[in-house]
């Protein structure tokens, strides 16, 4: 079983933060050590045994490519200072700052997730929290499907630049964006499914402090109002939560500060 631990709270005006991490209670098979030969054998086996081989093989191929991209990115990160690879890594970091925080959030909801645990300020209504999560999930299925197909259409054009004697940065960026939108799309669909599977009348339970558990472990949807998060948010001003308050929240709930700060000025 895999649980997504989410933290939801208003960060500035009508802008809400959606962030979290994945709790792995069971390890899943990885394609990190796959070779092309292994990939082909698995695809061939899926064609014979899987009732829906197209989707299974598409997921397998995307995982294989993403692992290769991650290895290449690590190689750029470790490159000597001032080298071409090091400069490409710096360019990649600047491009990554343009990725919307909601996309990063939706990508964190993998297909293996079986339930979600949502922590939110105790002053908020549980139904409002659920509606906001449904909204971001539903919108994600629309937005990222559109951008996924758009990125796919650009792959043949950018691949033509490989004839130039320089690294084909546009192709690899478009390839990354294609993968990223695919993962965000699948995360949106999974989150929407989990929300829809949850009974409307589910009781979120009593307010808690960080680290406590509810008794609704079998439910795909567990809402946990947090007094600790509420007290941290009350320290914010009229112009939204300051960087200091955001840092304290991230430290208390194990969130990424840079990802959370992006929500202050994000429109989606």
TrEMBL record:
Pfam families: Mit_KHE1 (PF10173)
Signal sequence interval, chain numbering: none
Domain of life of the native organism: Eukaryota
GO biological process: potassium ion transport; proton transmembrane transport
GO cellular component labels: mitochondrial inner membrane
Protein name: Mit_KHE1 domain-containing protein
Species for this entry: Cephalotus follicularis (Albany pitcher plant)
């Amino acid at each position: 079983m895999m649980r997504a631990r989410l933290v939801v709270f208003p960060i500035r005006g009508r802008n809400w933060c959606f962030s979290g991490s994945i709790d792995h209670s069971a390890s899943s098979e990885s394609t990190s050590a796959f070779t092309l030969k292994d990939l082909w054998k698995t695809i061939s086996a899926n064609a014979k045994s899987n009732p829906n081989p197209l989707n299974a093989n598409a997921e397998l191929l995307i995982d294989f490519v993403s692992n290769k991209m991650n290895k290449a990115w690590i190689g750029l990160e470790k490159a000597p200072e001032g080298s071409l690879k090091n400069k490409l890594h710096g360019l990649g970091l600047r491009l990554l700052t343009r990725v919307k925080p909601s996309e990063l959030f939706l990508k964190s909801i993998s297909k293996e997730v079986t339930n979600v645990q949502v922590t939110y300020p105790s002053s908020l209504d549980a139904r409002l929290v659920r509606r906001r999560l449904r909204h971001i999930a539903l919108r994600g299925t629309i937005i990222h499907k559109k951008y996924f197909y758009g990125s796919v259409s650009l792959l043949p054009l950018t691949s033509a630049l490989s004839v130039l004697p320089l690294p084909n940065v546009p192709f690899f960026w478009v390839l990354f964006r294609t993968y990223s939108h695919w993962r965000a799309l699948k995360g949106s669909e999974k989150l929407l499914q989990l929300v829809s599977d949850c009974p409307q009348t589910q009781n979120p339970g009593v307010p808690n402090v960080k680290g406590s558990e509810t008794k609704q472990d079998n439910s795909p949807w567990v809402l946990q109002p947090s007094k600790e998060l509420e007290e941290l948010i009350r320290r914010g001003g009229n112009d939204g939560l300051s960087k200091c308050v955001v840092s304290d929240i991230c430290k208390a709930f194990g969130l990424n500060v840079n990802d959370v700060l992006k929500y202050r000025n994000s429109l989606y």
